[in-house]
Write a structure and sequence with these properties.
Helix content is about 30%, strand content about 40%. The protein is an alpha+beta fold. It has one domain: START domain (Alpha-D-Glucose-1,6-Bisphosphate, Chain A, domain 4). An eight-stranded antiparallel beta sheet has the order 2-3-4-5-6-7-1-8. α1 packs across α4. The radius of gyration is 19 Å and the shape is elongated.
Length: about 170
């Protein structure tokens, strides 16, 4: 019985340390990656804007549900890993060069993702930028243990695989 109390106390202390660390982590962050894909911008655009099919190739997203448009802008609810959902609005749509999707407040994070596409000698130069805000200090404390660019890098790799092309990271 005593060891159960020791384990519970240790877990509580760890949670408290994570919470305290999170108080010192900025609420907002930005992560960006630039890659080259061996397909033209129109092909890349077709895949990144086909939201209903994202769960077929993006392992982070397990479900996508269309919601009623807001101010003539497409709105989607995305489920990540079956764990949480985010409501996303297409804030800027400039085919085939720029897409900005805003993640609305209400979940564990909010912010935006921006895709900037440009023709390149090898196909498309794509820059993906995540701008996020995490209000909860416990979740911010957990972010200390992860690489903030992981999500955008994994997205780019999944996109290249879906496009059946090589991915080249651009410094």
């Amino acid at each position: 019985m005593k060891w159960i109390l020791v384990v519970l106390a240790a877990l509580a202390a760890l949670a408290l340390l994570i919470l305290i660390a999170g108080l010192f982590v900025p609420k907002s962050h930005e992560a960006s990656v630039t890659v080259r894909l061996g397909k033209p911008p129109a092909d890349v655009w077709a895949v990144i804007t086909d939201f209903p099919k994202q769960p077929e190739w993006n392992s982070e997203i397990t479900a996508v549900t269309a919601l009623p448009d807001r101010d003539s802008k497409a709105v989607w609810q995305e489920t990540f890993g079956g764990q949480f959902q985010a409501t996303v609005v297409n804030a800027v749509v400039e085919p085939p060069a720029r897409l900005v999707r805003e993640i609305l407040p209400g979940g564990p994070f909010h912010g935006s993702w921006t895709w900037d596409l440009a023709p390149d000698a090898q196909g498309t130069r794509l820059t993906i930028t995540e701008r996020g805000t995490v209000e909860n200090p416990f979740f911010r404390g957990m972010m200390v243990f992860q690489d903030n660019t992981r999500t955008v890098r994994e997205y780019a790799a999944s996109l290249a695989k879906r496009l059946e092309t090589e991915l080249q990271t651009v410094p």
